[in-house]
Amino acid sequence: MTGKVFLIGAGPGDVELLTLRALRMLQNADAVVYDRLVSPEILALAPSGAERVFVGKSPDNHPVPQEKINEILSALAQKGLTVARLKGGDPLIFGRGSEEAAHLTSLGIPVEYAPGITAAQGAAAASGVPLTHRGLATGVRYVTGHRQANGSLDLDWRSLASEDTTLVVYMGVANIGQIAMRLIAEGLNETTPVMAIANATTPRETRLFSQLNRIAMDAREAELKAPVLFVIGKVVTLCAEWPTSVSELIGAAEANLGFGHRVHA
């Protein structure tokens, strides 16, 4: 008898941000296939007897290719198991969950989703930086700062360079210099506030405050490690840790790292 697969969003890391639906699915799993960004606290909620399969990826290091992950999921389900596919954030936002679902459904394997708190939402809640705010940002856009096989970033830079929109960049730590340069070239003010937040909502969380024309240098000097999320826009100034002036930003930064102002959560 064919089993089924739960595509579960584990959220940004904090176990308290896991949804009740996700928890129920996880606790009913016979096998758990999980990513690198799933916290040990969340993994511990799975049944003690459930089989655990790690398929984590890191930048430029994919020991288990996506095609192999697809095969692992289908093989487990075809044994009649209930499989929890645990992904950081939400499985349908830069999580390749739809690709896995397409593979499974093509084989007649039932798939159910549990949405997860996205990294952007988690970062907003942790830092107090709203993604939209009346008078500052009328919309928010999520983009990926990384392409498969390190391909070129073919984004619509002109539409992204909007002062009335909050831009959230996932997986962009390696290309933030190129991203900032293209946005400035399309007219976004070079002093636009930026927050880089690494390991949002976890005990290892670090925030870096900067401006668009300095964020690449600041992120490099701060040695930020993935996962890093960049929030670009005027809403960043609403964070309690945001320096009240450029001189304060630079002064605080010089006492910390380079020209950026880093805050540990």
Can you give a write-up of this model?
This protein has 265 residues and is α/β, with parallel strands linked by helices. The chain folds into 2 domains: 4-114, 3-Layer(aba) Sandwich (Cobalt-precorrin-4 Transmethylase, domain 1), CATH 3.40.1010; 119-264, Tetrapyrrole methylase, C-terminal domain (Methyltransferase, Cobalt-precorrin-4 Transmethylase, Domain 2, 2-Layer Sandwich), CATH 3.30.950.10. Helix content is 28%, strand content 22%. It is built from 9 helices and 11 strands. It has helices at 20-27, 40-43, 66-78, 97-106, 119-127, 157-160, 176-185, 215-222, 246-254; strands at residues 4-9, 31-34, 51-54, 82-87, 111-114, 139-144, 165-170, 193-198, 206-211, 228-232, 261-264. Strands 6-7-10-8-9-11 form a 6-stranded mixed β-sheet, sandwiched between helices. Strands 3-2-4-1-5 form a 5-stranded parallel β-sheet, sandwiched between helices. A hairpin with a 7-residue loop joins strand 8 (193-198) and strand 9. Helix 3 packs across helix 4. The model is unreliable at 255-259 (pLDDT under 50).
Beta content comes to 15-25%
Structural class: alpha/beta
Taking all residues together, what is the mean pLDDT?
90
- Poorly predicted spans: 255-259
Shape: elongated
Give the number of DSSP strands. 11
Strand order, main sheet: write it out: 6-7-10-8-9-11
Write out the CATH superfamily name of the largest domain.
Tetrapyrrole methylase, C-terminal domain
- Count of discrete structural domains: 2
Number of helices: 9
Major beta sheet, specifics?
A: 6 strands, mixed
State the helical fraction.
25-40%
From the 3D structure, determine the CATH topology of the largest domain.
Methyltransferase, Cobalt-precorrin-4 Transmethylase, Domain 2
Order of helices and strands: EHEHEHEHEHEHEHEEHEHE
CATH class of the largest domain: Alpha Beta
